[in-house]
Design brief:
CATH superfamily of the largest domain: Alpha/Beta hydrolase fold, catalytic domain
Oligomer: single chain
Distance between the termini: 23 Å
CATH class of the largest domain: Alpha Beta
Number of domains: 2
Strand order of the largest sheet: 1-2-3
Order of helices and strands: HEHHHHEHEH
Amino acid sequence: MGGNILLHMATMQPDRIEAMVVVSATMYFPEQARAIMRQVPTPENQAAETWAAMRKSHKLGNQQIAALCNWARETKDSYDDMNFTPPSLSRIRARTLIVYGDRDPLYPVEMAVDMYRAIPGSELWVVPNRGHGPVFSQDAAQFAQAALAFFRTA
């Protein structure tokens, strides 16, 4: 949700952010994302393997993991939080790099194009044959280089 949080900050207080990279951020939660959110199991129904994997990256333990699971499920009914329109995104003054996988099951790549068109002076990097969070896999090193180069030109 880091990219989504940055969109909030950049639209609410445009002068506070000079440059940002948003990865798999969304203007709103489309139906395909809501369908996936509806399928997130309750914490007590998470597989043991899922808990074990989550514990490796969530240092606050079971309570944090349970809160994230509940939040992901509850987001399916949220229509207020993520509701950026092109006019609201046009308030963003920060240099912005938008990064999307072209096979994101949550947010269609067309949404990235809409954000690119709405945010003045933004740049768009569509990572081919990748899904949601395309920078966390084999493309991590390339993403790090691209993001650093983007920030150096700020």
